[in-house]
Amino acid sequence: MLDDVFPVPTRALIRQGGRACFFRLVNTSPLLIQVQSGTKIVMADDKALRLEAGAYGLLPDYRPLTMENIPKAPQKYQTLALPVPRQLFEEAYSRMGSIAVPSRPVPAGTSKLPEEAAALFDYCCQPGNLTRLPGAIAKARLMELITWFALCGAVLGQNQSPRIEDRLRQMIESDTAFAWTLRQAARSFNMSEATLRRKLAAENTGFSEILSDTRMNRALGLIQTTTLPMAQIAFEVGYDSPSQFAARFKERFGVNPRHVRGGSERFERIGAEVEHSGADALVR
């Protein structure tokens, strides 16, 4: 542990065999990333950020993003991602003093990281490196890395007012295989079912929508970062039937889950919802 509050981050190596564009992806933690092969395009507020192989970036938490990952043959698309608790960003920025923090969290790319900063990113991403350090030292290393990213132009925007949706996503993400119900969620939040339903409606969403979306986001992550069989991934996100899972995944993302991993299926547009979100500008 970094301390009693922050767990040691674990990096994820994201691999994708087929080109695909995913809309409304939500990270529950800010991500420091490096695109290692292929191209990543991230869109928020109708503005696209393009990251080529070797580029670094920062993806905000709890902000629906549209992402297109494009492999460059013969290699698969590959990105290294390090989740870092938001509190460490805020503490690092307060110590910098002069840093200008954007009013809204948006994706940001960096100018080329200095060699020392790139080496620190690699160090923090190597399994076991941070866990072997005393918590205070591991925390200092991560804050130094955040500072390097900020000095190179990638600054995490201000935290927005916490939403019930965000709290609910966190709860479901802790165990996506669990048979979550509205009653259980309301009890966890110390409110009635009617109150929770009303609060979610005020955020233009609902319990079933968030449950399904959190599970599909988790499924996509497992497909991209593990070699688990599809049947196991289906089970991990609460589906007993692999075929039902595959159908729901394609309904949500517009591609078959096996295409994401292997790239054997023709690239597909995601459809009207993507076009409505402005992400049609991503696909050329």
TrEMBL record:
<dbReference type="GO" id="GO:0003700">
    <property type="term" value="F:DNA-binding transcription factor activity"/>
</dbReference>
<keyword id="KW-0804">Transcription</keyword>
<protein>
    <submittedName>
        <fullName>AraC family transcriptional regulator</fullName>
    </submittedName>
</protein>
<dbReference type="Pfam" id="PF12833">
    <property type="entry name" value="HTH_18"/>
</dbReference>
<dbReference type="InterPro" id="IPR009057">
    <property type="entry name" value="Homeodomain-like_sf"/>
</dbReference>
<dbReference type="InterPro" id="IPR018062">
    <property type="entry name" value="HTH_AraC-typ_CS"/>
</dbReference>
<dbReference type="GO" id="GO:0000976">
    <property type="term" value="F:transcription cis-regulatory region binding"/>
</dbReference>
<keyword id="KW-0238">DNA-binding</keyword>
<feature type="domain" description="HTH araC/xylS-type">
    <location>
        <begin position="166"/>
        <end position="263"/>
    </location>
</feature>
<dbReference type="InterPro" id="IPR020449">
    <property type="entry name" value="Tscrpt_reg_AraC-type_HTH"/>
</dbReference>
<dbReference type="InterPro" id="IPR018060">
    <property type="entry name" value="HTH_AraC"/>
</dbReference>
<dbReference type="GO" id="GO:0005829">
    <property type="term" value="C:cytosol"/>
</dbReference>
<keyword id="KW-0805">Transcription regulation</keyword>
